[in-house]
Amino acid sequence: MSFGVLAVHVPLSWFCVGKWGLVGAAASLNFSWVLVVILQYGYIVSGSCKDSWHGFSWSAFTDLLSFLWLSLASAVMLCLEYWIFTILIVFAGLLKNAEVKVDAAAICASVEGWIFMVPAGFLAAISVRVANELGAGNAAAAKFSVWVTVSISVVTQTAFVILILISRNDFPKLFTDDKIVMKEVSNLAVFLCISIFLCGIQPVLSGMAVGAGWQATVAYVNVVTYYIIGLPIGIFMGFKLDWGLKGLWGGLQIGIGLQTIILLIMCWRNDWDKEVQKSKDRVSDDVGSDVERKLIH
């Protein structure tokens, strides 16, 4: 479905951007996202998910407020992570020689965004795996799956880091022919690699938090590490110390590093047997026993 929407999006985006500019780009992107949702909805109601969804019923409204709160906490947690990179580009526009800085920051953010799709897949996978294992009462398997996924993600991200370092003077040519911008991107390659490596660990741990229902806690962690610690340090180093884009990005990486350390400690010190009990307490007796049987099978 995603591939089909991409096939539609490419010519649609070309037409809309050519006709309406930036507004056309936003409109085509929104249309493609809506189309993905419609196709996924059609897939679910077509009967393809009959083992996990049996149609609409009033039971869907049971404890809906708790589910809504969990969803909002997840949204806040993820948005705080995504927004920080956008804020980096915004502040880059306030630096000296802003056009070059913004171009370089945008190129690095694009590269990291592409590579991030790999750990983003791990995020989705580990959140489901942890939730299933906790629901099935397998505390040890939930914890073990987190460390296995972190290890796999670190290996893949390390490969990307090596590739970026080797091609640091060449990959900017994929985005621009401006030699000044290319040189700026090459100078930022080390910072890009640090972010890529950290994003091999952090998304998996965020996925673990989603599966364990820690979204609200991680949202608070993100606020503190990104916006109370990392961003002010980045602004100080970027503007006060006149380190420019490297200073801004360095502060951001301090925030990501702190968040990663905190999540690692949470995972390491967590009582997973207690999390199993919590997962059982979150569902009613009749629904809980049915879900548990399905997950075990």
From TrEMBL:
GO CC terms of this entry: membrane
Membrane-spanning intervals of the chain: 20-43, 64-94, 144-166, 186-205, 217-236, 248-268
Keywords, comma-separated and alphabetical: Membrane, Transmembrane, Transmembrane helix
Keyword Secreted: no
Top-level taxon of the source organism: Eukaryota
Single GO term (MF): xenobiotic transmembrane transporter activity
Assigned protein family: Belongs to the multi antimicrobial extrusion (MATE) (TC 2.A.66.1) family.
Protein name as annotated: Uncharacterized protein
Organism encoding this protein: Papaver nudicaule (Iceland poppy)
